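My main concern about presentation is that the manuscript never shows what a single data entry looks like. For the editor and my fellow referees, an illustration may be useful. For illustration, here is how one protein appears when written out as sequence plus structure tokens:

***
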Amino acid sequence: MKVRRERGFTLVELVIGMLVVAILSAIAMPQYGEYVARQRRTDARVAMTMATQWVERFRAENRGVYTGAALPPDLAVSPQVGPAMYDLALANVTPTTYRIEATPRVGSPMASDPCAVLTLASDGQRTAAGQTSGTVFDRCWGR
């Protein structure tokens, strides 16, 4: 009489496979979360650049002064498509200077981002969480 061997995986093999998947997930998920946050910051920086171009056009059309400039609604959020992560606003507007602030929207995934408020001034000065250099600044305005 011939003995038939059962085919399939043993319980030990399945548990080892699940353990490998769990370890890989534990490594990959935080990196993916940081990648998504970095992309959202990049979207905010692009929106700030677009807002800067709009303000400069405003100045060119208004006798060389920034006074009276206000961002149009479509430039006041980032990203422009999908759920808003940042609110953009003009601050400290004078006839010769201005600053654009990107503030994480309350309740959005970026609300707890260590970069906090990103700013871009008319003279090109950039800040992140109130800093102009350092680890947080490099992380927020870096790549």
The mean pLDDT is 90. The helical segments are 11-61, 135-141.
